[in-house]
Amino acid sequence: MKSSMLSGKTALVTGSTSGIGLGIARSLAEQGANIIFNGFGDAQMIDKLYNDIGVEFGVGTAYHNADMSKPADIEAMMGFAFEKFGGVDVLVNNAGIQHVANIEDFPADKWDAIIAINLTSAFHTSRLALPGMKRNNWGRIINLASVHGLVGSAQKSAYVAAKHGLVGFTKVTALETAHTGVTCNAICPGWVLTPLVQKQVDDRAAREGISNEAAKKALLAEKQPSGEFVTPEELGALAVFFCSPAGDQVRGVAWNMDGGWAAQ
């Protein structure tokens, strides 16, 4: 059932055409927020996606195709948000990419791209959103880090570095806004069955000659004690909590939703 907690507010969710970003965008729309989508994919599919969500929840929706590795694109997207809805009240920095390799084999261009999209883009969106949030004395910045913002895994040097950086950036943003109605927190998911993770499952199934289901179980068994994937809907509910009055004094946390991964 649609709530009105975020009625009149606008949320910008980067990387929201699928996976975690889409789950969070839906949860915020359900609370009455207008949504600006961003991400890659088939243009017709994206049109249908944001129009359908607008109709389903009775909110305003729009889409911007900013490449999150390009500061000029990010500036254009933030400008678009101001033109369309008068600003951004809830900023969800979710866009991310992954590459897996040992450090000595890691392509330098992949390192640069992962740092740019997974970390630097959050700086650019935040610096452009904060003046308006501070003026309104209300805002929520939610950074999608990862359990890899808290612990490491072999062969993920750039991703782990970016996500640890994002947790640190979250803390500084929270401290700088501590005397305002603006909060900043990070969500640190464990394994979520996003297209990014499905690709790792597919690769593993092919490499080990096992079924997709067996590859999923093996992946979870290594890291996630619950043996279950975290869902985009669960992450969306946590984002909604951060936006609620109950979240007013939740500031600078890195909140892991990881089936027990970081508890080990």
UniProtKB/TrEMBL annotation:
It comes from the Bacteria. It comes from Massilia psychrophila. It holds the Pfam family adh_short. Belongs to the short-chain dehydrogenases/reductases (SDR) family. CDD domains: HBDH_SDR_c (cd08940). PROSITE patterns: ADH_SHORT (PS00061). One of its GO terms (molecular function) is 3-hydroxybutyrate dehydrogenase activity. One of its GO terms (biological process) is monocarboxylic acid metabolic process. This is 3-hydroxybutyrate dehydrogenase. InterPro entries: 3-OHbutyrate_DH, NAD(P)-bd_dom_sf, Sc_DH/Rdtase_CS, SDR, SDR_fam. PANTHER family: 3-OXOACYL-(ACYL-CARRIER-PROTEIN) REDUCTASE, 3-OXOACYL-[ACYL-CARRIER-PROTEIN] REDUCTASE FABG.
